[in-house]
UniProtKB/TrEMBL annotation:
SUPFAM superfamilies: POZ domain (SSF54695). InterPro entries: BTB/POZ_dom (IPR000210), SKP1/BTB/POZ_sf (IPR011333). It comes from the Eukaryota. PANTHER family: BTB DOMAIN-CONTAINING PROTEIN-RELATED (PTHR47843). The lineage of its organism: Eukaryota, Fungi, Dikarya, Ascomycota, Pezizomycotina. Residues 1-20 are annotated as: Disordered. Residues 30-99 form the BTB domain. This is BTB domain-containing protein.
Length: 257
């Protein structure tokens, strides 16, 4: 357990409810430079939000690392759009339904790296809500391969969902056409074998449910406790309310800080 600049204890990966962030954005801010070249952007973020929601940032600012001394963080390996969505999530309290699928995979990779379990799970939930996007499935699998996440829960979901679509010839996504596609040739051998195993399972059991309809926590990484609500449940309900009422929330204005 750590302490923030105000002497309060912080977990480094706190579970929060929707609306937590805006109410608790306080104290010092730090500068974060993300991306390289034309994609490079600079963010100013409340330090307590970063530490409370990320094991990576919490550890960084507990100890006397260079980032703590300079009050500046550099993350060149990740896209500025993914980090912008992370910052938006910090301040708004949940992922908005309007985010693009390809950006969400990048957000998942970032969240995994910085040790933000709740964002990892919320990102997967939103990707499940985008399951009709066939290109997202294969592109996401490729992106996870490149990032070394072949054995992740997100990879498991994407592979199973793609297998389901292939088995049911979903929107013309047939096994025959997929085998001829460039995407299939770019799959790693182990990933391709897992896909074929899942395809065989869905083909032999046509009543098997689609992964996108499985219980919310099936592909989550948070610790499961009997009788304890999933930490990502509030965010899912908030997205449903926004979509049903056709409301659009404003994007957090970074220039404000």
């Amino acid at each position: 357990m750590s302490h923030d600049a105000h002497g309060k204890e912080g977990s480094g990966n706190g579970t929060r409810s929707v609306g937590f962030s805006v109410q608790h954005a306080e104290g010092p801010v730090t500068t974060v430079h993300v991306g390289t070249d034309e994609d490079k952007r600079t963010f100013r973020i409340h330090l307590n939000l970063m530490r409370d929601n990320s094991e990576y940032f919490n550890t960084m600012f507990i100890h006397g690392f260079k980032e703590k001394v300079d009050n500046e963080v550099i993350l060149e390996e990740y896209t500025s759009e993914a980090f912008s969505i992370f910052v938006d999530w910090l301040y708004v309290g949940f992922l908005k339904p309007s985010h693009k699928s390809d950006d969400l995979v990048d957000v998942w990779i970032l969240a995994h790296y910085i040790g933000c379990t709740q964002l990892v799970d919320e990102t997967l939930d939103l990707l499940k809500e985008h399951h009709d996007d066939g290109d997202m499935l294969i592109d996401g699998i490729e992106d996870l391969q490149k990032a070394g996440h072949e054995n992740s829960k997100l990879m498991q979901y994407l592979v199973e969902e793609l297998a389901y679509r292939l088995a049911h010839d979903f929107n013309g996504t047939s096994k025959k056409s997929f085998d001829k596609s460039p995407s299939a040739k770019r799959l790693a051998w182990a990933v391709h074998m897992r896909l074929m195993e899942q395809l065989a399972a869905y083909s032999s059991d046509t009543n098997r449910a689609a992964p996108s309809t499985m219980q919310d926590c099936t592909f989550h990484v948070h610790e499961k406790e009997r009788g304890v609500q999933c930490p990502a449940a509030d965010a899912k309900r908030m997205r449903a309310c926004i979509e049903n009422n056709h409301k659009v929330l404003p994007v957090w204005d970074q220039d404000h800080w």
